[in-house]
Specification:
24 strands, 3 domains, alpha+beta, single chain, Pantoate--beta-alanine Ligase, Chain: A,domain 2, 4 helices, 11% helix, 5-stranded antiparallel sheet
Length: 408
Amino acid sequence: MAFIFIKIFIIIFLSISVMIDFSAYATCTETTNCSSESNQFPDITTGQANYNTAHGYHAAGMDITSGDANSVLGNEAGKFITTGSYNTAIGSNSLSSLNSGNNNTAIGYNAGTSNASGSGNIFVGYNAGPSSGNISNKLYISNTTDDTPLIYGDFSNNTVTVNDNLVITGTFSDGNYTFDTNGNVSGLGTITSSGNITSGGSFVIGNANISESELETIDEVTAGSVSAGKAVVVDGSRNISGFNTLSANTIKSNTFEDSNGDRFLYKDTANDIVHIGSNSMLFYDSSTYGKDIMASSTGHVQIGNSLTDTTTIMGDLIIQEPTKANHAATRRYADKVSLMATTLDTRLPLYGNKHSLNLSSASTNNETAFGLNFVGIYDGLHLPLDFSFGSAVSGDYNMGKLSVGMSW
């Protein structure tokens, strides 16, 4: 790019040199306006226009009336300039429509020919300039009339556009970036673009090398929604929807909710308890409570849902000692009850005796029961009655028995 502007400068410099050379042979009027032919400024009144220079055929002369310091070289170049000043036209018909614009420079046949009143433009090349209309503060370098010339510039915002390939044979640097022949760009400055930045390779930022396929994963991503082959970004509420299957070795979360927002899995980290369900089953961890505990928040746990369901327990089933009639019996409880029943003895007295008192005991599976029994016969009033009562104990449990009988 720097070479292009150097060449432009050389062209302008040589053109001005030619103008100076021609002025040496020019005919000057009123000592300030000079031309290669006499009477080239017929419309200038003394003192109204100064320092204009013209070389080349202009039918009936130039039309300048009050413009200053215009320099034209070529057939009909700048012919219609009237009040415009500080314009330079080199080449036949260059600036051929200009009348009131200022500070324009045109180099080349028909260069800048559409501009009539715009100012501050530079046109370089055969027919260089837009297809129509007035413009200001623009640069056109082209070999044809074109609204998108090979090189276009805008002096208002200091931008230059190359409307084709820019080929660099060596390296080019603007102080921040260095461009080499392999298409690489290096530098420490900031890259700013209001358009597209296109790369056929990958972007390297520090140690990160980002390929096109990787950039595609973040292109047109909708925050909060899962799309195939795209990165996942949470929305403003940090929510995401659309997962079909989520596979992970570890998921860290204290709460899981269903699509209705109802909690179905929760970890009470303060108390080390896991809740399952909205009216929860509770699971206490043995690391805190010494054993793994399953309980219910309502105090009622049911295993099975139908009378035909079966429950299989592997290993020992340990049940608390029953305290109510509907409590499940432990083996220890069953052993104690059977032992107490065994120690209750209601046999009649032996050898014609009328009364007997006996103490008995029984044991099994490390459980023991004791029984105390009294049996009697009453035959008064010639009533053959017998009666007995006994009491048995085993640990915290006891059992009693009373019976009355009649004989005949």
